[in-house]
Design brief:
Blueprint (H helix, E strand, L loop, with lengths): L3 E4 L3 E5 L5 H9 L1 H4 L7 H9 L5 E8 L5 E8 L7 E9 L6 H16 L4 E7 L3 H9 L3 E12 L2 E11 H9 L11
Parallel strand pairs: 5-6
Antiparallel strand pairs: 1-2, 2-3, 3-4, 4-5, 6-8, 7-8
Helix pairs in contact: 1-3
Bound molecules: coenzyme A.
Coenzyme A (COA) binds next to β5, α4 and α5.
Amino acid sequence: MSEILIEGRRLMLRRATVSDVDYITALQFAPENLKFIVPFDKNYQGKAAKSDGTQIMNVIIEERDTEDPAGYFMIRGLDNKAKEMEWTHVIVGRKGLGYGHEAMKLLKAWTFEVKKFHRAWLDCKDYNEIAIHLYESEGLQREGLIRETLLTDGIYENLIIFGMLDREYFERKADNKELSLEAED
Ligand SMILES: CC(C)(COP(=O)(O)OP(=O)(O)OC[C@H]1O[C@@H](n2cnc3c(N)ncnc32)[C@H](O)[C@@H]1OP(=O)(O)O)[C@@H](O)C(=O)NCCC(=O)NCCS
């Protein structure tokens, strides 16, 4: 049984195990996802799954009713002394069902309420319109643009940095824009 991080209405976030590595690898290399991320190979994913999770933790987004995986992301920096966490490789397999929103809300609640981190950030290709819409509507701030930092098929690409601070999360929560954890059971 893998460790459950947090449960929502339709989804839960649980720590990935070695048995999830094939799913994660297939998800990353699916053409509709690959163009928006820089994938890690199976070997790296296996090492992450076997690690203690403090530096790198793979997380499965799971449907509660079917117990099927619906997506995946990676967390880096749980050992960071400044309480800064990186969220990366956010991928929803079952797209367009609102799972991206629910998974982001669960991730924020876990980061800022359960783990009590100060800051979280991620990066996103500057033409990834769906992800940009998702992150901005979930309250992440555009913090910067890293120009021509990726070389993909001979073309340089830009990354936008998005971030959220704990106080920004709690301001949104006071405005009823975040989950009420008590009500999720
Ligand atoms: C980005 C991603 C995680 C979103 O997950 P999802 O479950 O499909 O997202 P949701 O259904 O919760 O929400 C999608 C929103 O984008 C909107 N959308 C759809 N197409 C859009 C477009 N071309 N431009 C802007 N917004 C768009 C939807 O209308 C919906 O809007 P809403 O806020 O009004 O509900 C998913 O599409 C994905 O895995 N993409 C491939 C990998 C990827 O890009 N990962 C992000 C790396 S930074």
